[in-house]
């Protein structure tokens, strides 16, 4: 497949009606590409941010689970729980 030409030359002059249609199509295509360019420029930072936040959330979750389920942490948590139970104030009357 050959290269796409950057411009196309007509052998004949276009009629007024053909020129009008050509200009209308050109304006619509340029407007469409402007909208697409704007949407892409708007969506790319959002997509990057979403990916970064998702990765961060997964990393933080994995780190928290690792810390929580390590034996030392379980013993510390149980010790803290027993301290809280022994330091409870008597019920109010």
From TrEMBL:
Signal peptide: none annotated. One of its GO terms (molecular function) is GTPase activity. The lineage of its organism: Eukaryota, Discoba, Euglenozoa, Kinetoplastea, Metakinetoplastina. Residues 22-93 form the GED domain. It comes from the Eukaryota. Pfam families: GED. This is Dynamin GTPase effector domain containing protein. InterPro entries: GED (IPR003130), GED_dom (IPR020850). It comes from Trypanosoma brucei equiperdum.
């Amino acid at each position: 497949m050959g290269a796409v030409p950057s411009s196309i030359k007509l052998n004949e002059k276009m009629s007024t009606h053909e020129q009008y249609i050509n200009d209308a199509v050109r304006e619509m295509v340029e407007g469409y590409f402007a909208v697409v360019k704007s949407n892409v420029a708007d969506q790319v930072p959002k997509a990057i941010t979403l990916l970064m936040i998702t990765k961060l959330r997964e990393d933080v979750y994995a780190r928290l689970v690792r810390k929580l389920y390590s034996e030392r942490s379980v013993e510390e948590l149980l010790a803290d729980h027993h301290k809280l139970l022994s330091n409870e104030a008597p019920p109010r009357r």
